[in-house]
């Protein structure tokens, strides 16, 4: 009996949870650059599948109010549509991004917003996935120029603060969705 209790304590202590390791935000000439590193306790395949399906975004991001995968364009690249709602201090906005995605299965995905259908002059994002310690490391990079005004004195600080505050919880939800994908509860 003692062996079972000890084993349960050791295994329970060994369980890992998603973590947001770093978030860096830079602002210059109206453009923002963001780099974050996170780790989730889920396999590379499942984690990649979660990120490559825009329709799953509402399951892990409270900022996403609508998201869907769009049919490939004439160039064969899949498309995406995302509507976010967020507030920084008393500035609240609904933002739309629509564009195309380039995929490198189980390695990377890149999303490019079409300025004609988005609230951004440009918004280029990339996610790079690497197996690490039985889970998946996710490197996220964003370079954007919004079509709306963001107060330069507080914008970068508040964006970074909000991402750090909400990003960790989002990574936990991403981890949960990826584990549900692995169990077959969410099917492609």
Tell me what you see in this structure.
The chain has 188 residues and is of the alpha+beta class. Helix content is 28%, strand content 44%. It contains 4 helices and 8 strands, in the order H-E-E-H-H-E-E-E-E-E-E-H.
Radius of gyration: 18 Å
Number of strands: 8
Mean pLDDT: 86
Number of helices: 4
Task: Assign a percent range to the helix content.
Answer: 25-40%
Strand content: 35-45%
Q: How far do the termini sit from each other?
A: 43 Å
Q: Indicate the overall shape.
A: globular
Give the strand line-up of the largest sheet: 1-2-8-7-6-5-4-3
What class would the helix/strand composition place it in?
Answer: alpha+beta
Order of helices and strands: HEEHHEEEEEEH
Largest sheet, in brief, is: 8 strands, antiparallel
Low-confidence stretches: 1-15
Show the helix and strand layout.
Layout (H helix, E strand, L loop, with lengths): L1 H13 L4 E10 L2 E10 L3 H8 L5 H4 L3 E7 L8 E10 L2 E14 L3 E6 L6 E13 L2 E12 L8 H28 L6
Antiparallel strand pairs: 1-2, 2-8, 3-4, 4-5, 5-6, 6-7, 7-8
Helix pairs in contact: 2-4
């Amino acid at each position: 009996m003692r062996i079972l209790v000890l084993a349960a304590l050791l295994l329970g202590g060994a369980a890992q949870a998603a973590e947001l390791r770093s978030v860096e935000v830079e602002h210059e000439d109206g453009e923002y650059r963001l780099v974050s590193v996170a780790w989730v306790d889920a396999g590379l395949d499942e984690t990649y599948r979660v990120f490559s399906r825009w329709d799953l975004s509402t399951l892990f991001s409270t900022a996403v109010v609508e998201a869907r995968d769009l049919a490939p364009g004439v160039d064969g690249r899949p498309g995406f549509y995302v509507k976010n709602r967020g507030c920084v201090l008393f500035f609240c906005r609904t933002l739309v991004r629509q564009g195309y995605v380039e995929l490198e299965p189980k390695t990377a995905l890149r999303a490019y917003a079409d300025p004609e259908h988005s609230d951004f002059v440009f918004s280029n994002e990339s996610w790079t996935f690497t197996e690490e310690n039985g889970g998946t490391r996710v490197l996220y990079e964003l370079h954007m120029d919004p079509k709306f005004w963001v107060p330069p004195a507080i914008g970068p600080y508040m964006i970074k603060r909000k991402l750090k505050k909400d990003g960790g919880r989002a990574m936990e939800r991403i981890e949960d969705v990826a584990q549900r994908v692995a169990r077959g509860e969410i099917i492609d």
